[in-house]
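Hi R.,

Here's the chain you asked about this morning:
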Amino acid sequence: MSVISIACDRARLERGGNIVVDDLNLEIYEGETIGILGSSGSGKTTLLNAISGFIRPTRGSIMRRSARNGSLEAAEPTTEVGYVFQDFALFPGMTVQRNISFGLSQRRVPKQSIDDRVAKAARKFEVSHILDRDPSELSGGEKQRVAIARTFAPAPRYYLLDEPFSQLDLQLKLRIRRGIHELLRGAHSTTVLVSHDFSDCATLCDRIGVIDLGRLLQIGDPLSVYAHPASLAVARLTGSVIAFIGSNDGKGCLPSETDTAARNAMSFACRPENIRIGRAPPNSHLASTGLAQLIDVRYLGFTIEFHLRAPNGGLFVALAWANSHKIPSEIGSEVAYHIMEDDVFRFSDREGSST
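And here is the predicted structure, written out as tokens:
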């Protein structure tokens, strides 16, 4: 049976008298990496602060298993927790080396071991060349990597990572994300990552919890959350999605022109990669098929975006592999599209649970 490391029981979190997170029930298991995915202002950072013990729930509880006695206790700030803050929170007046070594010194680790572990973390997160600099001399990306190195050097029991890649360019982000994945895979620590980027959560996490307006909407492994979203809100937070309105006969559905139309008259939704250009195969079980005007083509390397306008004026995008087959790409031309029934999401209400 899995051991629970963090338990949230009907937790309510407030900031400035306003409810930020409400009625949160969540169990996080020992050694698990869980992602909390949501847009800005959804309550992600507030939840991390509560798990760390910096703030307390105004209702319900947030408990964390203690290394001291092995029991679940009300979350309090301790050296068991490593936290990558969104604003980095580096110590001014201390060099990068002293910042990274701070947690190790607090644990009274021998100096030689401190030096070795600082050097290892600096190499892993590509800050070896700036160890003698002050944080005020660093770029945003350098500060973020120092914050990550400082958090991982002591190998704490818990990692809390608040948007840890926000200041990194794409190639650097991929390397640092891979480095974090390697460290977490070899550790027994429990990790909570919060991000607005589904790819970060999908790459690093065993499970993803999707949060919106302070409410946990869905939790599951990355594939199930992406492929079987519980609501239109979850579908949008996990990737691109297009809402179609109209009848359910496979012919009358068109992409919605507005969010209001999507909420009030949505028939189904689907991902751009599931909109196929060209005539449908015979005897296909279709959710929709029709004609649209090609208004733009964008080459993204290994994929192509086809920007289309439906007869009702609704705009939508179909995504295809660049080398999959020849697709008409003359701007202004009329193209056929189809969507298979197995590739659509149908929801019992416009923002609620899926059917």
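One quick note: DSSP finds nine helices and 19 strands in the chain.

Cheers,
M.
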